[in-house]
Amino acid sequence: MDANKLAKLKEIGYHVPKTCGLCINSQFASHLVEWGECTKHSYDHQKHTDSRRQLSVYRGGTCSGFELSPLALSELHGFAELVR
Fold first, then answer.
1. Up-side HSE of residue 84: CA atoms within 13 Å toward CB?
2. Neighbours of 76 (CB within 10 A)
3. Is the pTM here over 0.90, yes or no?
4. What is the C-alpha separation between 81 and 73, in angstroms, rounded?
5. β-strand 52-58 against 35-44: which pairing, if any?
6. 18 with 66: CB under 8 angstroms?
7. Would residue 50 be called left, alpha or beta, if left means φ above 0 and alpha means ψ between -120 and 50 degrees?
8. Where are the alpha helices (H) located in the chain, listed in sequence order?
9. Residues 36 and 26 sit within 8 Å (Cβ to Cβ)
10. Angle at 31 between CA 65 and CA 1, to 5 degrees
11. What is the pLDDT of residues 9-27, one digit of tens each?
C-alpha cells in the first residue's frame, strides 16, 4: 500500500472491524451473501425442529470468540494492519 495512503487512513482513524465476515469460524455460501453460519457456536433450535444447529450469523456482526481467518487476512492485502 502507498505509504501516504496508509498514513492518511491512520490519520482519519480508519480501521477494519473484526466481523464474522473475517472470522475463521464463519461459513458463507459466497462473499456476496450477508448471512451464514458460525462453526464455533451452536444452540438448541426450538422453533421448527427442536434440534441442535449452528448459529446463524450476519457478515457484519462479531462476538468475543472472533479469530481472524488467514484467508481473509491475505485478501485484505495492505489493509490487514488496520484490523482491530
1. 6
2. 15
3. no
4. 9
5. antiparallel
6. yes
7. left
8. 3-11, 70-75
9. yes
10. 85
11. 999 999 999 999 999 999 9
